[in-house]
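TA notes. Do not distribute before section.
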Amino acid sequence: MNVTTAANAPQERRAATLIMACLGVFVAYLPVTTVAASLPAIQRALDTSTSQLSWVSDAFVLPMAALILTTGVFGDVHGRKKVFQAGLGFSGLGALVALCAQSIEVVWVGQALAGLGSAALLPTTLALISHAVPDPRERGKVIGRWATSLTTALAIGPVIAGVILDHFAWRWIYLLPIPASLLAMAFAAKLLVDSRAPGARRLDWPGQITAALAITALVYGIIEGGVASFTDEKVMVALSTAAVSAVAFVLVERRSSSPMLDLTLFRSPAFTATTLIAMISFLGLIGFFFALSLYFGTVQRLSTLESGWRLLMVSMMPLLLGEPAGRLVHRVSPRVLIPGGLFVTAGALLSLTTIDAGTSFGSLAWRLALLGLGMAFVITPMTATAVSSVPLHQAGMAAAGNNAFRQVGAALGPAVLGTLLSAKAVDALPGHLTDAGLTGATVRHVTAVADTGGLSAVGGTDLGADTPRVLGALSEAFVDGLQLCLIVSATLALLAAVVGMLLLRRPQHPAPPSTGGDSAVHGRHAAANPGATGRAATQPQGPVAPAPAPRVNHQEG
């Protein structure tokens, strides 16, 4: 199959490529909030424990985080169109397996297959965009549309789950991704413009094995440490394995002639900053959403659909402002735009620390909308800056690396903040039970239930006439844990903002091809003669000033 270049592709084929990229990221992210909002229904239907239930989400996130770098390399080597279609296929297959599941273990398998599909779609969609739109300024607008598709999937997921669960069984939440994947595969086969990375890239199996082992062991260790204890033998083995594998990954990649993640990318301060910001901010934000969903269900006793409408207040702002934020990337310095969004995010999180069990939707709405506003000026500019901060032929690798670190943060968020919430709530519960006027025997019994079965076990305990007071004390204790999560999330957002202020500069973009030549040829010419790139991109008003930031060596990787 001939690979069509961005310069000679017909305009309508390029438009089709961009539409397919947006549809692909929509399919990749739709299961995230749809399944998360349905976890209580899955738990009731399959009679699972809390630890078994936590692996429903983690079974999806783990392969996404562990394999996203590998799928990016597969796309660079074998063609992004093939990997894109494979990602759609795995997404549809995973949804089909989960739709037919009769046990929690089969749900895990379906989630893992869908996570593998998302791992293939995320870097491939951004690489397709980078190839189809070589001009960095125009690319920022397109990435805004890509981010809008992502946030649309996150926004409507809880609403879709709520509508389905009000009328049907939990398994039907997996129906929509199946026809969506099949239709996208059919259109992609006919319309999608293929592309590969220039040069002789090869698959990096040592890098893939060490990266997957490090990510899997780290997430497993954090999750199991929260459920049991971080001094548990298996947890210590997992965390030690993660550390050793991470060191081995760095050593392997430094010596590889065709690395999966070229470590010279981190010579770009903008790429380093956006990667750290992605991991830190998503750890706090995804962990907060996990805690907020539990607050709506456990404390305010809302249905899945009612919770979905409230979460929509957060997602609507990135949905509406994603594309305008993409346009601002080349008008406002990322050093101002991204930290500014993170400061707004932190302020919104801190404003939520005043909520209690009876907080009304109106009081919550403006705080959640403010949180979404801050996120809108982080997600799109962060992605656009990461992709634009490296040479064009490394855009796929940069996209995969940025997404990999983002998914590691997303995987760790619920585990870390869920552990903090549970520990704080269980610690505060006896005091709230006493304040509610309960006797010593009842307090000891409820506390023992919380210690052994968790907060959900307390909510399901029938204590006769004392039940309303127990549930009230449980709500107050949960709010104490939520407030701790909010403070931690806000601190992480502020930390990410400081990273951005220290490292971000206005990105120095590799110049797009000046005329209708092959972008790959242009990239090799630029690598051999950097001065020629500056001359080709120079406008009539004068030469381009040299970049003050360290440049990535175009010949490496």
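Switch to the second chain here.
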Amino acid sequence: MVAPLSSWPWNNLGVYKYLLYGPLVAKVIYSSAWEQGKPDRWCLHVLVLCALRGLVHQLWCSFGNMLFLTRRRRVLGDGVDFRQIDKEWDWDNFLILQSFIGALVCYSFPSIRKLPLWDPKGVFIALLLHVWVSEPLFYWVHRAFHRGYLFTRYHSLHHSTPVPQSFTAGFATPLEHLFLCVVMGAPLLGACSLGTGSAGLVYGYVLLFDFLRCMGHSNVEVLPHGLFQALPVLRYLIYTPTYHSLHHMEKNSNFCLFMPLFDLLGGTINGKSWDLHKEINLGKNDEVPDFVFLAHVVDVFSSLHVPFVFRTFGSLPFSMKPFLSLLWPAAFIIMLLMWAWSKTFLISFYKLRGRVHQIWAVPRYGFQYFLPFARDGINDQIELAILRADKMGVKVLSLAALNKNEALNGGGTLFVSKHPDLRVRVVHGNTLTAAVILNEIPKDVKEVFLTGATSKLGRAIALYLCRKKIRVLMLTLSAERFQKIQKEAPPECQHYLVQVTKYQAAQNCETWIVGKWLSPLEQRCAPPGTHFHQFVVPPIIGFRRDCTYGNLAAMRLPQDVQGLGMCEYTMQRGVVHACHAGGVVHFLEGWTHHEVGAIDVDRIDVVWRAALKHGLTPV
């Protein structure tokens, strides 16, 4: 039987739970329209306070996920995975509960609705009540929640998330949040009952309460250790994220609300609190990644698809949402600032086989790669990222689609030639990309039509297929480039490569491999039932209802991947682009060669078998 007050009554409403704010909104509208003399503003205050409290939690979550700023000060080194994100999806349920409690209190005590804007005496009274009522009350009840029935039925839910973040502060059962209402409400009601309450006190105390709760759950140490060394008494007056994270790690210590003084009096201070705090301040908790995937932003909208903007949005495949339009101006301004700053930053990480894999991003957007004057600047940033990875001790760095553009840097050849002594292996991952595309093609196909035929991938695909005695219609206007590729094929297979110069040449071919963007008119040349395999960035738009369209080449990461909580652009959860997967395989195999420049056709099957061996699977 489910314990009472252990689940939220609106759990099954989904986003419709926000309609529960309707009565408060209706009261605000009614007061504004019909109470012209003295409109009742307290429902408006409750709604504004709820919005501000949600913003506090969101801003702390954004800060905690800005790994380029916080990675050296993280208390727990693990990433927040999809399971935790889904579990904490409705972290804001407590705001609905407490908004109604706040409105009920306001209308049960009319004097509260007439509070002045500010009264400094109330701050002193609230502080005293917080120290001598809220802090000890929370401490003893919190300890009770860690025993037997209460922990099993209620508090274990809060401790079920492995990596605390600000949203974890709100992730608890209704009973626990009712208790928090008492803890948070005691100083406010006490100040109001003594005639020293004010609207400013309510806003300030509630927001500061949430701020400190979010700070403790942020998993990022923000308080300098030197402060506690200079004033040792402070360590008992204000807790730190390290202090509270130890409570989540070991559970039976560090029970205080905000003041470790009560843990000291109760004998429950974790002995590692101050030593760990010092280690994290010195950056000793930072892990050097073994593998780095150097990504880039596609466009302004996709730049919002990162964990430090909205964690939940980043955990789903990218798609256009109405709220993105509202954020576009801010994202555009940040794009300009990043363009000026020009520094590669860390956006996500995960662990595979117990080794750290990081995703870095070059602050350049897709269109910028096609600006002639931006080429040198982009290459400089990629080069700096490679040198930084080499200095850190990274073993393999894999380049994302446009970062290895042939016209930009020869598929990474530029950097390897310029720095022949690199210890980090630079990988474009295109060998596995070719393998994924080739293994999608049905075994009984006798003829394919290939666009982008003289590109790096197109060349490898054509040479591989002709060896399998499959006729390849290679779309290219350059007879010289075609002949160069044809000469690379075994003499007995060269006749399987056929140059064509028009799309109409493929009007009877139902297998198209697309390496160049196709307009609707060009797609019309394909016969009904055609399947479009593709390796073009951005992917083509499916205009034909009588044809099918494949996704960009991708692979699913092994089942034992840990801490992955971000979808890679439009890919499903746990799925990464084939070039990303190619770098992972390169690292797992321990290969010591650079994979840059032209694709070695002889290695396509080798890389494919290695990927399957390590648990990567085709999508």
